[in-house]
Fold this sequence. Notes:
Structural class: alpha/beta
Shape: globular
Number of helices: 28
Distance between the termini: 56 Å
Largest sheet: 7 strands, mixed
Helix content: 40-55%
Amino acid sequence: MANLTLDVYAQELIADVLATAEAEGATTPETFTLRALADLEQAGVVENTFAAYHRAHGIEASGYGSNESVGTLDLFVTSFTQYPMNKMTKADADALFRRLSSFALRCRAGVRQLVDESNDAYDMCVAVGKQLPGAARVRLFLLTNSIGPTVKFPDTTLEDIPVSFEVWDLSRLHRMATSGTLSEPIVVDFDNPLPCLATPETDQDFSVFLAILPGETLADLYKTYGTRLLELNVRSFLQAKGAVNRGIRDTLLTGPQRFLAYNNGITATASHVDFWPLDDGGRGIKRIHDLQIVNGGQTTASIHYAHARDKADISNVFVQMKLTVVPENRLAEIVPEISRYSNTQNKVTLVDFSSNHPYHVEVEKITRSLWAPAADGSGQETRWFYERARGQYTDALAREGTAARQRVFKMLHPLRQKFTKSDVAKFEHSWAQLPHIVSRGAEKNFREFMIQMGDKPPRVDTAYCERLVAKAILFRVTEKIVSARQFGGYRANIVTYTIAKLAHETGQRIDLDGIWHEQRLSPTLVAAIDQLCVPVHAVITKPVRVANITEWAKRSECWNRVLEIEWTAPDRLRDELIDPSAAVARGRHAAASSEEDLLRIAEVAAVPAADWFDVARWAKETHNLQPWQRQIAFTVGQYLSKGWEISTKQAAQAQTLIQEAQRLGFRKSGCV
Length: 672
């Protein structure tokens, strides 16, 4: 990806958007918007994004987000063209920004009243109207695959709220995709050079410097860049819920002058450092290139929040910094190792280094040599391309060299058969009946997927990958079915909930092996999905106790309501379901990797189903346990009452929640 020229990148971007839109039954602007937002969210530029399109007289918007790390309301407008290397004038960009600004103001004035409540845009209008008055800053983003104007758009205000403008055009997206990291490199200039001490050289691949960083400088850096500073560390700031964060905050508020003595400081990396001579004969750090904080994310964010929210005086706060300078071509290799070994205060979860997790490596390895049966009668087998890291497909295509060889590659690896890590999380969590987690967005769903995988991922072999592809086919066909229904919005939520309900009502006995061999769904299964998505849509678009449909879909209560839908698999579909014993064997293959796993399943299954229902009811009445734990108890009860076998993951979660319930006062004879 690093050697991909701008013109080739422009062509590949358009081809990828067109193929994805066709595969998912979506529009090209919507597909481009989702792709751009996913990249920006993964880069830490934006957070909690939601794509929805609304255009009316004088207003236009393609989505919004709320960046909790820097306290902003983000609004997006998209311009997508199928002409590579198209140029956008400043007048065109100005017009789009004006329409986006007007949209924000109209949200305050009640524009939602003119939007159908069943449309995604209604939720966007409600959310923007609610968040705008309390926003510390508004950021307006123009997302386009054209080459945008090079002029800077000056900051302004919107009802006394500071407003900034960001153009993410073809050139900027290309830089992000080819820089070696997903986000744009961070370059920091210091008005007053930081005195530093160089350590003895121990390795030709890196050098280390020690410096003292003013707290105000660190807070400003976090205010400007947010979690982008922490992207190679990845762990989210825990918002002063943990003991470490509370201790940091208390010191900042009551004894800021002692902060340097009490705190361990931060560990940072860079690709290059520019030095400046000091008056005393030493040298100071003037500029840092590719700055990343790999340990000390809690310290950094705590200082920012104490200053911004608690109005703490941090003028006497100083933080020690160990800065490791690594050659640019070794960043991707060495920096994750520095991050891994320096994070000892709090355990680094598997998601922190997810791309290199054995699960993803093995899925990539197997799918690269796995031929899918010909689905169109041509006899031409193809492959499903698993993109473990962004840009692998484009890299593989570029390595083919000639245009003729690239055409062959595309024929054997159709773009519509490319899928990513976040796609896998959607497929697996929908099948595992966790649609409310899928509805939280790609990044949060993927993080939960990795956390729940824990130290015991499923056994990845050829059979697993074939069934994973079958789930991909099930998901994408469901997307097309839901799109054809023209519900008006919330397709992503309807799709995951429909698949989850289908998996629940069939006991996960859908013939995944048959889907793999046919590379399609049977007409009977298609008809069942088409029938089921209608009542699912009705539940999702009628929220309980919340006005926002999007937030409703993220709640386990929404999943409970979908579970209550009176729907059973049609007779013709039941005839296609696999034998229960085969489903159990398939579940064990995917989840159980030891005798310990099977023993845990047996222990949980020994508890009567009624007792699990009692736990769920008790938790709801007393507000004890987390909502997802209450859901697990209810699900385990349903599985046992229907004679279905639970997975290792469900059994482990069930054991944990029942122990927690008993600790909090739940008593039942069977739950011992």
